[in-house]
Automatic annotation (TrEMBL):
This is DUF6792 domain-containing protein. Residues 20-251 form the DUF6792 domain. It comes from Metabacillus endolithicus. InterPro entries: DUF6792.
Length: 710
């Protein structure tokens, strides 16, 4: 094979990339790679596979650094016999949320890292991962040819892998022999200006800019042309291969300012014949509006780099996700305390179940605290329990309020800016929506509905700001702990009322968002199709178009010749057959062990005992005099003489092994073997029926026979 590229077709590469989105162990990854390779090539993958995961390699690094959201895998294929030595770096695409958090870290990087060019943290993690694994591989002692390295990436992963290729390694060489980017987020000039210092200097010299923000003032077409020429002169761009669906949402936005076209693309995939994508629509968005967004978000790049997602959101809006996390963690404990107070109130004759409004609740609390001692009754322990629960609840509420003060202060500062941004959106939305109307994505009525919902959001935000200004003075909130219980309760009533108002406005905002989501527009349908086209499943099936093969969840489906109506999950059928065969073989092996154990413990033991008896009889009959001492046990010694045994004749009758033991066991074994045989016939029928259905497909038989387990 002489180290020729193993994963040498688009569909093979895409299916291997798709494994990145499945939570598989390293052993399962290897097994799936072997299965997919055999399904696509009809050949056994004759190389060892070593799997390296970013979660393992970057584990120590992540203990001290902000989580960039990067995930990736490197596959090392090696065989001294076949002279194979290849490594494939796979950078994973965007995920809505990370494994252990609600925060959309990947998509925040898409915005801040790619569109704005405000950070390089995912690229840095991808580079560190690739460098460390490459060092591990290079230090292995073996008799292998020089390593050939390839890069795979989908979506955001396509962006990372492309930039890894654009940036030279430590020796000044390109990293990969070939890079394959599928439905990738193209690099932008703004992103490269942060990552590549030499390029940034060239931009500054070319366009005479003095500070970071000035890059957004460069005419978009001029910056794009300069950047593309700069990198095309640095590397052979044919080493970067793009595989793109025409309907893909990222391709749809790739005409936006700053996005580059570097690399080789042999046409486009058609994942939906009746839909042409959203590129035409996005191209209608004024460049001036996009520039305004970039410059606005660029102000928060430093915070995003330093403090990650939490810092970025807090700096942008005043909203602190860390406060949300602490409130979520304290909520269950707080609820338990409230329930105890509710129970105490009920026991005092106050039907708390009828109290639903916060002001009613606190009026009852206030009344209970100010009651004369004897009104409560003689049960002093009960009163103490009530007061303890009450003050515990007040303390918890006060603590939560105080914790929220920094957030309220920040919201006081930031809300006007957010409201201003929403107003700008509201005022500038009309021409954008009109473009949607012009291309037929929405109707005039739908446009008016959208504008109305945006206005509702603006109105609610203004109301929230007003409530904060009037009722949530941070200095008063911080002073709660120093006041007497009576005053505390009165102020808490006002604060809770203010929070209720804010909650009500937030509910209105949520309803407005729900309304926006439920506007019945063809645009949402088009966007849904575009989002589907972005996924690897759509790409895989587009690559298999006009064949009798389709794919779902990385399983291969086949249709018999001339009958596209029937689709059979070949991958699953092979798994069922091989698993069924494995189970029956295991059962047969266990039955053999059981029979052998029975033979040893019963039949052979019985025969050995009979053999020992016969041997002993023969010894006694051959040497009777040796057993003369036995006579002295039953006879008196003759006076002056002795007895000698001259003859022994044994009339033995040795019976065979009892049938009452052997027959039930034999019957049980026959029954089990009969059931196993039925299972084997059933499993074989599955294979026979599929082979008959696909009689013209020679590789089907081979797939059933090949064991691809890792």
């Amino acid at each position: 094979m002489s180290n020729e590229e193993l994963l040498n077709t688009d569909i093979l590469r895409t299916r291997i990339m798709d494994l990145e989105y499945e939570n598989l162990s390293n052993k399962e990854v290897e097994s799936e790679i072997r299965r997919i390779y055999y399904e696509e090539t009809g050949k056994k993958l004759s190389a060892e596979v070593t799997v390296y995961r970013s979660d393992d390699i970057l584990k120590e690094h992540r203990k001290t650094k902000i989580d960039s959201g990067f995930d990736g895998t490197i596959l090392h294929f090696q065989s001294e016999e076949k002279k194979i030595n290849q490594a494939i770096t796979i950078t994973r695409g965007s995920e809505l949320g990370e494994k252990d958090t609600w925060k959309p870290i990947d998509w925040t990087y898409n915005l801040m890292g790619i569109f704005v060019g405000g950070t390089d943290n995912q690229y840095s993690d991808a580079k560190r991962f690739d460098d460390e694994v490459n060092s591990i591989i290079q230090n292995k002692e073996n008799d292998l040819p020089s390593i050939e390295r390839y890069g795979f990436g989908h979506s955001l992963g396509g962006n990372n892998i492309t930039i890894l290729q654009l940036m030279p390694d430590d020796e000044g060489e390109v990293r990969f022999k070939k890079v394959y980017a599928i439905n990738d987020a193209s690099p932008t000039a703004y992103q490269l200006a942060v990552i590549d210092n030499k390029f940034r200097v060239s931009v500054n010299d070319k366009f005479q800019i003095n500070n970071d923000e000035d890059i957004y003032t460069i005419p978009e077409n001029e910056l794009k042309a300069f950047t593309e020429e700069y990198y095309k002169n640095k590397i052979d761009e044919t080493t970067i291969n793009h595989l793109t669906a025409e309907e893909d949402m990222l391709y749809g936005v790739s005409g936006v300012r700053g996005f580059l076209e570097i690399g080789d693309r042999n046409g486009f995939l058609d994942t939906d014949p009746i839909f042409s994508g959203i590129r035409e629509l996005v191209d209608k968005i004024p460049d001036q509006d996009l520039r305004t967004i970039q410059m606005f978000l660029s102000n928060y790049s430093t915070t995003y780099n330093k403090d990650g997602f939490d810092g970025f959101i807090k700096e942008l809006t005043g909203f602190n996700p860390a406060v949300v996390d602490s409130v979520l963690n304290a909520r269950s404990e707080f609820s338990e305390t409230v329930e105890k107070v509710q129970k105490s109130m009920n026991d005092l004759g106050k039907p708390f179940t009828d109290i639903t409004e916060a002001d009613n609740f606190w009026s009852v609390v206030k009344e209970s605290v100010t009651l004369p001692f004897d009104v409560v009754g003689t049960n002093i322990n009960f009163q103490n329990e009530l007061l303890h629960g009450l003050f515990q609840t007040i303390g918890n509420i006060t603590e939560l309020i105080v914790k929220a003060v920094p957030m309220i202060i920040e919201m006081t500062k930031k809300l006007p800016e957010v409201i201003s941004s929403v107003k700008v959106l509201y005022e500038n939305l009309d021409p954008i929506l009109q473009a949607f109307v012009d291309v037929g994505f929405i109707s005039q009525v739908e446009k008016d509905e959208i504008v109305s919902y945006i206005k509702e959001i603006e109105t609610s935000l203004v109301a929230i700001q007003k409530t904060i200004d009037e009722s949530l003075d941070p200095s008063l909130l911080l002073a709660l702990n120093s006041k007497d219980p009576n005053s505390q309760i009165e102020e808490i009533i006002e604060i809770v009322t203010a929070f209720q108002k804010i909650h009500s406005e937030i509910s209105d905002i949520q309803e407005a968002f729900e309304g926006l989501k439920n506007v019945d527009t063809s645009f949402m349908e088009h966007f849904s199709v575009s989002a589907h086209a972005h996924g690897l499943d759509a790409v895989i099936n587009a690559l298999a178009v006009n064949k009798n093969i389709s794919y779902k969840n990385n399983d291969m489906y086949m249709s018999p010749s001339g009958n596209g109506e029937i689709k059979v999950n070949i991958s699953s059928s092979v798994r069922i057959y091989q698993k069924g065969l494995s189970i029956t073989e295991e059962k047969e092996s266990n039955v053999k062990k059981l029979k052998a154990l029975f033979d040893i413990e019963y039949l052979e033991d019985y025969q050995n005992r009979q053999r020992e008896i016969v041997t002993q009889i023969h010894t006694m009959e051959s040497n009777p005099s040796q057993y003369s001492y036995l006579l002295y046990r039953t006879l008196w010694n003759p006076v002056g003489g002795y007895y000698t045994l001259t003859t022994i004749n044994v009339n033995e009758q040795l019976f065979p092994f009892p049938s009452k033991i052997n027959e039930p066991f034999s019957h049980m074994i026959e029954t089990i073997e009969g059931e196993i045989e039925k299972e084997k016939v059933l499993v074989k029928k599955i294979r026979d029926s599929i082979e008959e259905l696909f009689s013209e497909e020679e590789k089907i038989t081979k797939m059933f026979d090949y064991q691809y387990g890792g």
